[in-house]
Write a structure and sequence with these properties.
This protein is mostly helical. It is 60% helix and 0% strand. The protein has helices spanning 2-7, 9-30, 40-61, 65-76, 88-112, 114-124, 139-156, 160-177, 185-191, 198-202, 209-212, 222-227, 254-259.
Length: 271
């Protein structure tokens, strides 16, 4: 599997990304949960434009990305998991779980370090909430995130296959749990024992500070449960809650989004 994923990495990533994007777009069109307040065309152009610009910038700065670092670590024997002599499937599970915790901790840091919040609020400044919100990140945040991921790969030593699987699952789950959709209540409750559902993560995009500072997971729900940052419902309810950040109302222009981190917040920090 490792050799196959490395040989076909671009096709695997793009195929799954496009497939999930089309699936979520169709689901949201057929059964939307909330009524959008802004132009979908404008928001989608901005959100997908950000991921396009960010992807180009990250590739220019880090040509080999995290899977390249994992390949180098495997060749040199760097990282804890490269000392692993147990079953490969268990190494894969441990690697994916450990990388997911790193992303969770990074997310917490981006909320509570003021300079990092300035970057991350581009994600939260989306006045609506749909699957494209899951890819709406400032290019500088993506660069910092990749640097953190590189460090994690060097310390942990996950296999290249584990890194590819983790990144594909993380990107897919980010689109899923940012979806403007609702699951049946019983199914949502069951899924929350393992993964982050749209209803769970939507709380995190509330303008209310203590709701914003909860439910940091993008993939596994375990870390919020274990570390006391889980909040199951917003006070105003899924339909009544206000999405976004208080100091940015409406949807800025695309250049405005790129410049947003350099604008001093006009009110108290929302996350």
């Amino acid at each position: 599997m490792d050799a196959f994923l490395r040989a076909h990495e671009p096709q695997v990533r793009l195929g799954i990304f496009l497939g999930l994007m089309l699936t979520m777009a169709a689901w949201e069109t057929a059964r939307p949960l909330r009524v959008m307040t802004q132009s979908r065309l404008r928001r989608w152009a901005h959100n997908l434009g950000l991921v396009l610009v960010g992807s180009v910038v990250v590739r220019l700065v880090f040509p080999f990305a995290a899977v390249g670092m994992a390949t180098l670590a495997a060749e040199r024997g760097w990282g804890l998991l490269n000392l692993w002599s147990g079953p490969s499937w268990l190494e894969l599970v441990l690697a994916v779980a450990a990388l997911d915790f790193v992303i969770w901790a990074q997310h917490v840091m981006f909320h509570f370090v003021p300079a990092l919040w300035r970057l991350h609020r581009v994600h939260h400044a989306d006045p609506d909430y749909d699957f494209t919100t899951g890819v709406r990140f400032h290019p500088l945040e993506l660069l910092l995130s990749m640097g953190i991921k590189f460090a994690a790969v060097l310390v942990l030593g996950p296999s290249p296959a584990a890194v590819i699987i983790f990144e594909v699952v993380l990107n897919g789950m980010a689109m899923f749990n940012h979806g403007n959709v609702a699951l049946p209540a019983r199914l949502d409750w069951l899924l929350r024992w393992v993964v982050v559902t749209p209803a769970m993560h939507r709380v995190h995009h509330s303008v209310v500070p203590d709701e914003t500072n909860s439910n940091f997971g993008f993939n596994l729900s375990w870390w919020d449960r274990l570390l006391g940052t889980a909040r199951w419902e917003p006070r105003a309810g899924q339909l009544g809650m206000t999405i976004g950040v208080e100091e940015v109302r409406g949807e800025p222009s695309f250049p405005g989004l790129l410049l947003l981190p350099f604008r001093r917040p006009s009110g108290p920090r929302g996350g």
